[in-house]
């Protein structure tokens, strides 16, 4: 069997996908029309042409603008359902999906509208696609600790609709320790904990995500290779990294896919996984990330199976379910 076919047909879990980053330009324009939201772009083509990023912030500005068309429960459902169908086509059997409630509540959309719409799509995915999907609420790190606490309070009446919390948005200048007290509270509540760290930010942010936030996984974490002691810690404690190669390429974290450090992470014995991050913006869903990265770096079939196994090990499915995927 050719490697690209193996990569496509392997069962896998996706653990780093921002649902707002799965909103395709066509759906942005459709929702803008039905919700009468004005867009600063004349057409789908013009919007797509704006997708030329130089770093994380240049992407975030456009990503938050795109999310402004999401108003109703149906919008949130339709966005997530479109992603889940694409994920199933990539043989994703389990997905843990980030959402950014503050991007919506700041515009007057209710937390309930966001969570109910997304959750309905997850229930439908299990029933219609046999794909299990759960939600992870992300705090925006460029906003304050107080705003994160308010967001958590607003979400707690819907506690059964999400499994954990994460930390995303502009990394540099907003270290994990800014949210130590919020994460401590989430930990008491029994929520799973993850955080973006070491995407553009230094290895020090990965250390504080682990030691102060006590996260179970690191999102991105690719800057960790700059710190040998950190690499040993990640390997010894089997802390998974949810790596997003096409994202790293499009946000200029690496100059070319062939220079990505995924092989180095695997060779060091880390539980690295491959994920799509914001597939509508970065030029590909999960299988595109696998096939393009393998073509550029020359990783092997054995490493493909390792990455698929890692994705289930790193997930928050129960121990019984994990055994079934081994
Ligand atoms: N990094 C930080 N915040 C984000 C990202 C990312 O890659 N994608 C969506 N929000
Ligand atoms: Zn991300």
Automatic annotation (TrEMBL):
Catalyzes the hydrolytic deamination of adenine to hypoxanthine. Plays an important role in the purine salvage pathway and in nitrogen catabolism. InterPro entries: A_deaminase_dom, ADE, Ado/ade_deaminase, Metal_Hydrolase. This is Adenine deaminase. It comes from Ramlibacter pinisoli. It catalyses: adenine + H2O + H(+) = hypoxanthine + NH4(+). It is an enzyme of class 3 (hydrolase). Its cofactor is Zn(2+). Residues 11-326 form the Adenosine deaminase domain. The keyword Cell membrane does not apply. Binds 1 zinc ion per subunit. GO terms for molecular function: adenine deaminase activity; zinc ion binding. One of its GO terms (biological process) is nucleotide metabolic process.
